[in-house]
Amino acid sequence: MKVLITGGTGFIGSHTVISLVKEGLNPVIVDNFDNSSPYILEALEKITGTKPSFYNVDCNDAQALDQVFMQEGNIQGVIHFAAHKAVGESVANPLKYYRNNLGSLINLLDPMLRHKVSSLVFSSSCTVYGQPATLPVTETAAVVPAASPYGNTKQVCEEIIKDTVASNVLNPEQSAMNAVLLRYFNPIGAHPSGQIGELPLGVPGNLVPFITQTAAGIRPQLTVFGNDYNTPDGTCIRDYIHVLDLADAHVKALRFAANVADKKGLCEAFNIGTGKGHSVMELVKTFEQVSGLSLNYLLGERRSGDIEQIYASVDKAQQQLGWVAQRDIEEGLRDAWNWQKNLESLALDKA
């Protein structure tokens, strides 16, 4: 099975390439290194022993993206990661997020329909739930107005996919498309080899790389945004999932979309998390334990766009995809720190 992966050199995409190769599938990577590095291609070859096909293409370039489908031929599935993803940046610059995240998806769906690609896995987010009324949040929870433009792009993208799948069923000239929407929670960790991991270019928008960069002396101080939330220690609670578990979920989802008995316009959402919530301060203290270091941090004001707490119900993914997370936050933070230390010799991280 030949699988196109947009954003395949990014944090989650690169680990998913490894999972695909491990499962005997053939990844084709599309990326423009907007938030990654060409080094990742070398690292993937070292880890997997294979050299995946790669195209340096921006998904906002519809013509170039269509050429990838034409040149490769027989692409049977697509996993779409390529998107901007920082909540805070999306609040400050919403048009950047709407232009990129919506446009790239539309540009991808067009050639998928023309080339009769029947399986799509979409990188969605738990942000579609906003602050859920009950926890853990299930896939039947209401999709509420998003707390950030980033979250809104994920909601709109899901609707675009649902509408496209439904219309495709009605069009006799096109083969049916099945889509899986993976609403995942907070990815952390890195490959245990230390060869690939999260590589934010510039100031990190996510907590764990900011923690590891602070520990490494790249950042002078970590700010914990808000300590007056209605949680046990006053800091936000999230469901932190190891990136390798998340990568494996994409392979399970792709096989589900390709092999489900009813292949007429399936569009299903799944939560991908651990089912457990951990606070920001828990993560800070756990990192200090696994690294043996003391972090320089301060308690700051709440950050615009953040919700108080969210963690997943993962029953549906376990029952229908046959997937469950295998790794805990200790392993995730240990792997992330190993990656950060390795970055010093690679000289890839940028201030």
Overall geometry: globular
* Average pLDDT taken over every residue: 93
What's the number of structural domains?
2
Computed structural class: alpha/beta
* CATH architecture annotation name of the largest domain: 3-Layer(aba) Sandwich
In CATH, the topology of the largest domain is named Rossmann fold
Give, in spatial order, the strands making up the sheet with the most strands. Answer: 3-2-1-4-5-6-11
What is the CATH homologous superfamily assignment of the largest domain?
NAD(P)-binding Rossmann-like Domain
What's the CATH first level of the largest domain? Answer: Alpha Beta
User: How would you characterize the largest beta sheet?
Assistant: 7 strands, parallel
What string, H for helix and E for strand, traces the elements in order?
EHEHEHEHHEHEEHEEEHEEHEHH
CA radius of gyration is 19 Å
Catalytic activity: UDP-alpha-D-glucose = UDP-alpha-D-galactose
EC number: 5.1.3.2
GO biological process, one term: galactose metabolic process
Subunit structure: Homodimer.
Can you walk through the features of this model?
This protein folds into 2 domains: 2-188 and 242-272, Rossmann fold; 207-238 and 275-346, UDP-galactose 4-epimerase, domain 1, CATH 3.90.25. Helix content is 41%, strand content 16%. It is built from 11 helices and 13 strands. The chain has helices at 11-22, 39-48, 62-72, 87-92, 94-114, 149-170, 207-215, 243-259, 280-291, 315-321, 329-346; strands at 2-6, 26-31, 53-56, 77-80, 119-125, 178-184, 186-188, 222-225, 237-238, 240-242, 267-272, 278-279, 297-300. The protein has a 7-stranded parallel beta sheet with strand order 3-2-1-4-5-6-11, with helices on both faces. A two-stranded parallel ribbon has the order 7-10. Strands 8-13 form a two-stranded parallel sheet. α2 links the parallel β2 and β3. α1 crosses α8 (243-259). The termini are far apart. The model has no long low-confidence stretch (mean pLDDT 93). Residues 4-335 form the NAD(P)-binding domain.
